[in-house]
Amino acid sequence: MTTAIQNIDHYLENFSALAKQARRDDPRWFEKLRETALARFLKTGFPSTRDEDWRFTNVSAIARTPFSPARKKPTGLSPADLAGWKIPNSAAQLVFVDGQLVPGLSTLDGLRKRVTVSALKDLIRKQPEVVEPHLGRYVDIERDPFPALNTAFAEDGAYVHIARGTVLSEPIHVLFVSTTRDTPEMTHPRNLVVVEDESQATVIEEYISLGSGPVLSNGVTELVAGESAHVAHHMIVREQPEAFHISTLRIEQARSATVSSHSLLLGGGLVRNNVHPVLRGEGGECLINGLFVGNGHQHLDNYMLVEHASPHSSSRQFYNGILDGHAHGVFHGRIVVHKNAQKTDAKQTNRNLLLSDDAQVDTKPQLEIYADDVKCTHGATIGQIDENALFYLESRGIDRISARRLLLSAFASECLARMKDDTARAHAEQLIHKYLSSFADALAEGSADRGRQPERTGEEVG
Amino acid sequence: MATKRGEESEERKKKRMSLLEIKNLHVTVGGHEILKGIDLRINAGEVHSIMGPNGSGKSTLAQVLARRETYQVTAGEILFNGRDLLAMKPEEAACEGVFMAFQYPVEIPGIGNAYFLRSALNAIRKHRGEDEMDAMDFLPLYREKLKVLEMDEKLMNRSLNEGFSGGEKKRNEILQMAVLEPKLAILDETDSGLDIDALRIVAKGVNAMRSPERAMLVVTHYQRLLNYIVPDRVHVLVDGRIVRSGGPDLALELEEKGYGWMETEARQTAPASA
């Protein structure tokens, strides 16, 4: 339902302006996809906290801000500026600045045969036959207005295709950089990753920003894993404190496909990360692993929807949160087991560390089970740094700041341990270390964490 | 010349001085007085045992020595090596040479055993003004101590105490003690929950560390451990007071008669209190 404060008319104006100029060469099917999505978005508007899926996340600040599509501007960035963002040993890197691919900053030389990495925009025009069967076929624009908005405004993003039976051992890095100018701008990155039967690949999708001020990144990635394919997707969000970031990862898994999704939410003012795998074929396995680290007034929302649609599939969700200052974290883990999905094995764990009295976390498990022979468990804990563990380390000579830093790293390392790709893990580890170091040092100043309440624990089996 | 003589007498004084000196220690926890005036002196090279029934304050004494802050010292003082122990934070006490083997060692997932112990050792070495030890130098030392405690090398890279059996945890405590080489080692009910094989291994590890420079305080409920770690002195703690001190034979006497007679005796001799 559209609320009074929402001003969504300008989305229609912006859409019309784009359709007249920039998009004149786009194929008709794509334009139709966009029009349908826009119509859907205009009908629903932005979600409100009365919507169950958005209970803990208020997006009225996004609704109020008149974002216009990011315009191309000189980036002023050179490959040298990007050196610090590069992931050593990646097979390819695509860099988008304000939604536009910057070929001069991108490298594709590490690629081998049977692997395609390119800008989605080019593919849509040059080889629509490879894109059309997938694009927009998986993500649900009815359920969530943000993917609808993305589909309506999507211009570009990464297209990754791994042909049948191909193993790509190094990760593909897709980097989205948002810069700011005087008016609020939005980008809607759109990625399509197709990993065919018996293939293997790792994709790292990373969002960073330069400057400050309101920007909206609203990304959608559709990831298709063929039979017995092994795919890892890493999402890294480390935008600036005024940035709004919404991302949706929709995973479609064929029979016996193994997919892992690793999310690292470190930066950004308001961040919502949706992960939505559908285990379509029998015997699929899905790991959803995440860490969110927030302070200041950051709001970090993790929304998981795992659908088991066939028998013998298993899913594991592990999310750890570390929150300080006035940060607010959300973990919403929904598991749907469809009627014929017998022998489903689904597990969900969310552990949270609150480092200040004003930090907050809402954790909400939600199980919908329509089959009768399944195993589903979920559990959540919210606690502080364990005083016993802290004393144990101190009693061995380790000072309080170092002990805290060790314990925070240890808590985060559970997520790192689940990342199989060495390159991706090393990259994640280095970023986590950077963010947590500033945490532990700030902790040294306050002593609000002494004499805390015991950990609250809830473990249920359904 | 005068100053030199002064220094010498200072040196002699230090020699005469006990490594640990507890004077009239009173401790409360959550408003309840647990220790009601403890006096205890332990010289370097000595092994003392504190025995007592449940709730007598044994573990409280151990934790206060390790500088746990939840215990409030209301009166008395503790001198360690001539310095005010109560003014030290836990990590300072550790760096000065106090080590407590925990009754319930903490499991910390995500921190490797070897990494943790090397961090601890380096914190202590740094405090002493020594160079930090890198992983290559540390490994042989660690391996050697693992062997003494008959522990599997695979434990090295596993998380700190995570998934360890009770016996493995206790052995890991002694292993840490062996690497950190404290001046004062406090064993807080290290024997509880151990089977006889594990007890022998732990005792062997502890006995290997007895030296003229080091003192030990063995806190235990049962006499059994003292068959393997023979103490120089035994103190019986009842209701927050040391009611009796003696040689190793006192432990045997307790084993035979239990704590009951001593508790009765303690009640009769205790000063009348409100």
Structural summary, described in words:
Helix content of chain A is 23%, strand content 37%. Chain A has helices at 9-20, 28-44, 60-64, 79-82, 120-126, 128-131, 145-153, 387-394, 400-417, 422-445; strands at 68-69, 92-97, 100-101, 115-119, 158-162, 172-178, 185-187, 190-195, 200-209, 215-225, 230-238, 244-253, 258-265, 270-279, 285-294, 299-308, 314-323, 328-337, 345-354, 360-369, 375-383, 456-461. In chain A, the strands form 2 sheets. In chain A, strands 1, 4, 5, 7, 8, 10, 12, 14, 16, 18 and 20 form an 11-stranded mixed sheet that branches. Chain A has an 11-stranded mixed sheet with strand order 3-2-6-9-11-13-15-17-19-21-22, covered by helices on one side. The longest helix of chain A has 24 residues, at 422-445. Chain A is globular, with a radius of gyration of 22 Å. Mean pLDDT of chain A is 91; it is low at 446-462. Chain B has 274 residues and is of the alpha/beta class. Chain B has helices spanning 2-16, 58-65, 90-96, 113-127, 135-148, 166-180, 196-207, 249-257, 260-269; strands spanning 20-29, 32-42, 47-51, 72-80, 83-84, 98-101, 108-112, 159-160, 184-188, 215-220, 233-238, 241-246. Chain B has a 6-stranded mixed sheet, sandwiched between helices. In chain B, β4 and β5 (83-84) form a beta hairpin.
